[in-house]
Design a protein that fits this description.
The complex is a heterodimer of chains A (about 325) and B (about 325).
Chain A lengths: L1 H4 L5 H6 L19 H29 L3 H7 L11 H8 L2 H33 L6 H13 L4 H11 L7 H4 L6 H14 L2 H9 L4 H12 L1 H16 L3 H6 L8 H17 L16 H30 L7
Helix pairs in contact in A: 3-16, 5-16, 6-10, 6-13, 6-15, 7-10, 11-12, 13-16, 15-16
Chain B lengths: L11 H7 L2 H26 L26 H8 L6 H6 L2 H38 L3 H12 L6 H12 L4 H8 L13 H27 L3 H9 L4 H26 L6 H6 L8 H4 L2 H10 L5 H28 L7
Helix pairs in contact in B: 5-9, 6-9, 9-11, 11-15, 14-15
Classes of the chains: A mainly alpha (about 325), B mainly alpha (about 325).
Membrane topology (chain A): Multi-pass membrane protein
Keywords (chain A): Cell membrane, Membrane, Transmembrane, Transmembrane helix, Transport
InterPro entries (chain A): MetI-like, MetI-like_sf
Amino acid sequence: MAQEETYLNPNLDRTISLDSTLLANRKSRNMMAISPATNAVLNILMIIACLLTLIPIYVIVISSVTSEAALTKNGYRLWPEEFSTMAYTFLFSRGSIVITSYINTIISTLAGTVLAVAMVGLYAYAISRDNFKFKTFFTFYAFFTMLFSGGLVSYYMVTRQVLQIHNSLWALFLPSAFSPFWVIVMRTFYKANVPNEIIESARIDGASEWRTFLQIVLPLSVPGLATVALFSAIGIWNNFFNCLLLVDEARYYSLQFTIYTTLNNIRFLLENADKMVGLVNVSTLPSQTFRMAMAVVTVGPIIFAYPFFQRYFIRGLTIGAIKG
Amino acid sequence: MSVETSSVAEPVSKKRKGWGQDKIYTNLSYLTMVLPGAIWLLLFAYLPMPGIILAFKTYRLQKPPADFWIQNKFIYSLIKSPWVGLKNFEYLVLPSNMESTITYIRNTVLYNLLFMVVGLVLSVALAVIIYELTNRFWAKLYHSILFLPYFISWIVVAYVVYALGSANGILNNLFQAIGWQPLEVYKLKSAWPVIFLLANIWKYTGNGSIIYLATITSIDPELFEAAAIDGATKWKQFVHITLPHLIPVIVLLQILAVGRIFGSDFDMFYTLPNGAATVKDVTYTLDVFVYSMLRSGAPVGYPAAAAFLQSIVGFVLILITNYVVRKTRPELALF
């Protein structure tokens, strides 16, 4: 019966429904825990893995606080001879290019995240309901786009020449404001976490579908929607491709695009400096530390926000905090 | 599934009642909910689909005459441009282009296979280790740190590659201090498979392990307990209990990954090499190739032909994989 109703294998629900909390099922662990020796080895392994993971972040941060003189003299070092916060002072005092793209990115991240949560949350809720007549159609309608696409060239032409969202802030978030993948995940989330009985009883009490959704379902779905919000926000904040493909005017550049072009231009100029004697004065280029500071400033908000949203995605990703 | 609302077995009178105003109102409400998403999918996913025929046309931009049904240059030109059969594909296999086309396809497929296998093994291993660690606080801390790179953009990683691997980078300074050969990754082809692999592991292992960790924690601990009492080692428990429980998730993710085998993580392949032309042979994937052709001013049909291959091969592979899975283990198939 289920097979007739949906194109998707019902097992898909089981597999993406991560019906568990990380801390559940731990009652009787002690008697079968790994031996202290194994535990020690695994801990050491994990500590090494964590240190290796943090190295790149360390490299960026330390390069940004190296003094320009030390950098010119010695190149990049794991521990600089001389520290300096010059780059940051410089970055925030002038740097209109960074400020503009920062503002663009903040606006598009906010707008895109709100849109994504609203569109994904509503779409997924409707197709999670068995009394929606077109449930199967709209499930397939979203799912099919995960399997097949028109390709980059056609997408490029359509966004630029039909939708005409290029060279505007829309270009930075609209293409990322919806995701069939998160629709499927959220559909599973609703099914696993919002008991049908609650929705049915709201209906019997005379609440409309919209009211049921807004007053009953929404409060129960915070972990799931917060996860969608988080991943959309990160996706748009870190997005480079939308800007690369659809924006030609500097005033609409996104943060990632700006810092990439800066790195790219300067590497090119430095490498070819000997061939361009007299054409480019290398010493007037934005300094090396300045650029590293830009990278740090890009990562900054994410690192600061990390602990706050972490408690959500532990629950939201291992979707199904309520069941069990 | 929808026993309470299905009207199949109900008498006619009830059936008609089922389609009364109430039902219509319910369905209309749901339709208003899917509407924004449906419009988005229509514009950004379905509208570009017919454009796939660009691969078989010589695209010429023309202005539609005033009486044409749609006043859009692209749509008009798409319809009116002449069909040229496989001419655009022939361009990709011209003697002068053949080698690079094959190289880019090879890069795309090999990198994808490498990432699929390594990513799977490491993510599962990490999930098992995190689950087995006896101290929960440390386990959580490790996992948080290993998950962090997922939130850092590839462009920042490109900066890291520069700070570590450029001519005045940390590694080169280190190598010269101990008297080794100088190292500059932007000129060294053999460095790139290693860089991409490390970068991929760094960014995705923590994130990839979450779904496996969640699945492992959902296994009834009594299974492990019973196995332990019967004298099964941890490894045997992994093979006979953990792995079978992980198989559905693994199969699901691998089917989707197979569908993307002609695609790639564009941002990584495009930004990490920083446009260094010397290492093009090992850093270009089909995505980057299509993009650079599209922006080079070449006739639109050429990149369109490559993009067509990407779409069709991905689609066909996902259908085949799913078919094979369906034949062998129907309960694991995606659709």
